[in-house]
Amino acid sequence: MGSELVRCGLATMLRDLGAFREVLDSGDYDHSMELLHSGRPDVLVVSAPVEQDKAEKLARTAADHGVRVLLLLRTACDQTLERVAAMPADGYLLEGELTPETLQSTLTDLDSGLVPVPQPVARGLLAKIRPAFAKTGPAAPNGAAPVDGDRAASPLTSREQQTLALMAEGLSNKQIARRLGISEHGAKRHVANILAKLNCSNRTLATAVALRRGLVSPPVKRPR
């Protein structure tokens, strides 16, 4: 979904990259929903916040069907990030930075289990959670989760702290499970608990909150 010009340009780039066997271009909500239910898509790119309600329903349906979601944002302004913060996403794209190179890098990160986030979006998400951070204050000196009115009854366990650190590295649930020697179901449960305790709607926001509060150290950028 989104403007025809952007959709056609993105579809052309994807076909030229040869990243997928089939690239389906749909600007119709009902048709997009039918495709999701058919089990054909592997990745859904949805423009946001264009037709916000429909975009959110598509993203949630995709997530329920195990389809990875890339949100294509027109800008990284506060209004846009406010609208998409609650939408499930495995990564983000910015229209203004959309080139074959950035698209290939995003898809490579996505296939590696990372969460691709353009720098302007990352900065905007960090700024978004600063007011909450100002209310709760920094993390405790020993690196434990800060205790405040919302979380005093449910601090992060040591296992959740380990999971959070791996989330900050951009690891997928399967990779987290492998690193911790647990089942993928167990990893999903830890991630869900972390999202609930940090009061975040998705992994990207949870990582931003964790970095801002000092719950985890910034991951080291590995050279490509």
TrEMBL record:
<keyword id="KW-0805">Transcription regulation</keyword>
<feature type="region of interest" description="Disordered">
    <location>
        <begin position="137"/>
        <end position="156"/>
    </location>
</feature>
<keyword id="KW-0238">DNA-binding</keyword>
<dbReference type="InterPro" id="IPR016032">
    <property type="entry name" value="Sig_transdc_resp-reg_C-effctor"/>
</dbReference>
<keyword id="KW-0804">Transcription</keyword>
<protein>
    <submittedName>
        <fullName>LuxR C-terminal-related transcriptional regulator</fullName>
    </submittedName>
</protein>
<dbReference type="InterPro" id="IPR000792">
    <property type="entry name" value="Tscrpt_reg_LuxR_C"/>
</dbReference>
<feature type="domain" description="HTH luxR-type">
    <location>
        <begin position="149"/>
        <end position="214"/>
    </location>
</feature>
<dbReference type="Pfam" id="PF00196">
    <property type="entry name" value="GerE"/>
</dbReference>
